[in-house]
Amino acid sequence: MGSNPHYTFLPRLCRPYRAKTKGKVERSIGYVRRSFFVPLVSRYRQLDQALDLEALNLEFARWLALTANARVHGTTGEVPSERLAQERMALQTLPPRRLAGQPRPGQGDRTLTTQFPVESLQPPLSVYDDLLEAV
After folding, report:
1. Cα separations in angstroms, 41 against 26, 44, 130
2. 3-state percent breakdown (helix, strand, coil) of the chain, nearest 5
3. What's CA 101's distance to the chain center, in Å?
4. Which of 1-5, 7-11, 31-35 has the lowest mean pLDDT?
5. Which pLDDT value is given to residue 15?
6. Mean pLDDT computed over 4-20
7. Distances, alpha carbon 116 to alpha carbons 87, 110, 112, in Å
8. How far from the centroid of its chain's Cα atoms is residue 102's Cα?
9. Could you tell me the pLDDT band of residue 108, with boundaries at 50, 70 and 90?
């Protein structure tokens, strides 16, 4: 959640135990499960074929193009692929990725500058030489 100001948007979390907001997310997951995943797994089992990640991705892209994004959405009354084409005009590009550990604007440098003595946990090589000579 801390990197969101960098990407110029603020997500809104669903309130816990509130069916009104949670259901919107759960319904979309259920739709993908019922309309795509269960029929796909059943079809592959009938054909006695293994479903690998590459096949799953290909089938999902096909399902999105021919089924999910081609239907009339129940809430909006619009075809999702057509709605996306309209909304793309308003979408903004994301700013460049910030590298891990790079300070955020206004954050400042919080690097610890105090040096502590470091002791090696490995004994010197001469210890091993002495052991080999004893054997």
Report:
1. 21, 5, 64
2. 50, 0, 50
3. 20
4. 1-5
5. 76
6. 72
7. 55, 17, 11
8. 21
9. low
- The set of residues, in sequence order, having a beta carbon less than 8 Å from that of 4 and lying 6+ positions away, is 10, 11
pLDDT, residue 128, reads: 77
Give the domain ranges of the chain.
1-96
8 closest CA partner among 91, 88, 89: 91
Q: Which amino acid is at 34?
A: R
Closest to 86 measured CA to CA, from 95, 101, 76: 76
Coil, helix or strand for 64? helix
Cα dihedral angle (70, 74, 75, 80), rounded to 10 degrees? 0
> What is the enclosing helix (H) or strand (E) of 118?
none
Q: Which residue, chain included where needed, has tokens 């996306």?
A: 84
Residue type at 127 in one-letter notation: V
